[in-house]
User: What shape does this take?
Amino acid sequence: MENKSCHVIVLTYPAQGHINPLLQFAKLLASRGLKTTFATTYYTVNSIDAPNVHVEPISDGFDEGGFKQASSVEAYLESFKAVGSRTLAQLINKFDASDSPVRCIVYDSLLPWALEVAKEFGIYAATFLTNSASLCSLYWHIVNGLFTLPVNPEIESLSLPGLPVLAFHELPSFLAYPTSHSAYLAVVMEKFYRLTENDWVFCNSFEELESELVKAMKGLWPVKMIGPMVPSAYLDQQIEGDTAYGANLWEPTTDQCLKWLETKPSGSVLYVSFGSMASVSDEQVQEIAWGLKASNRPFMWVLKGSENKLPGEFMDSIGETGLVVTWCNQLQVLAHKAVGCFVTHCGWNSILEALSLGVPMVCVAQGTDQPTNAKFVEDIWKVGVRAKRNEEGILTRKELYGCIRQVMEGESSRQVRGNTNKWTELAKKAVSRGGSSDRNISEFLAKVMERNK
Ligand code: UDP
Assistant: This one.
């Protein structure tokens, strides 16, 4: 039964990698009895399909096409801040005049202006970090003076509490190349300067996964781990029928993918995807194509927007061995028994999904948080290997083929598979009743429910 007097708004940044974990959190709150409203932009609102959650549009100032309509990242973020604050306030006013006033805003940390809106209305504010806690701690260390920007590319390594020693190329590109990301970096830094002004700071991770960091940061920062935010069915949780996030910005080719997977032996398929944002150059597409072909294994490749770059000769040669699609239901694919390896760009959601579903990885990191995530996959969790790029920044077919062999064959394969299974069990435990993430969520729920407005 929905508790109308206990109403939470969950506000997302309108990208697939943000909508998925925030919508999952909204569904979880709804399943625990809170009235939950999911707020997203006008042009993404129709892609949400989550029965227990109320969905409301807010405006980023570009209601027809969002980010693509803006002249620059700066212009988009500025517009979202100005127009988004206004429409979020209107939404809260609307609910306050009804029988379910808003008690709390849970907002995507890329939208730090939502904190001001919560303060204006005197309601709880919780920010939601969509990266790993280890990555977030890098920004926290900058804010707290442990290191400064720009990082000198000549440095041998960076050694910080609770983190492995990081080489320059293992830093997130926001820090390694701050000038090419200045607008996003400004937003990211703002959220870390204001972290303690929030009533809660949630992170989509779990304590066991980043235990060294959790130990090092205990008492220093307010971050609470509540993940992995992956639909319940995959983690043996209890939201009934929860088999998908409930949002697709592109049409998935689910039936075609599942039918094709059914024809392949258990653990044989390479699943290849570089997430929702990546653009892959012509040369890189070709190298990956011939690397997959050389592996002599079945593969399913999500090639969003780059499918025309595939050489005709390659397409003619693959027959039933390969399937190239523009978008799929990644969870269903990773959960399929035929899939034996995930060749991934190392987006944070993709990593959490692979760990939760027990699929070892070949890491093909590009920018943002991916190089740091890939470091953890290979060196800390030991659930995959990192593919190295050559001096021109290209992952060669030979390198890819070599990495696939390490994950799919022999003793190295047995080791990464054993480790992956261990993390799958720990992920399930974290979100099950009384687990580390579940406890953090329950504490939040108890406090929000007890507040008298
Ligand atoms: N995804 C999907 N179908 C695809 C590719 C990706 O459903 O064909 C989902 C994937 O499950 C993940 C999200 O899109 O939840 C991508 O987020 P991630 O953090 O991995 O990467 P980003 O797109 O943000 O770079």
User: Anything to note?
Assistant: The chain is about 40% helix and 15% strand.
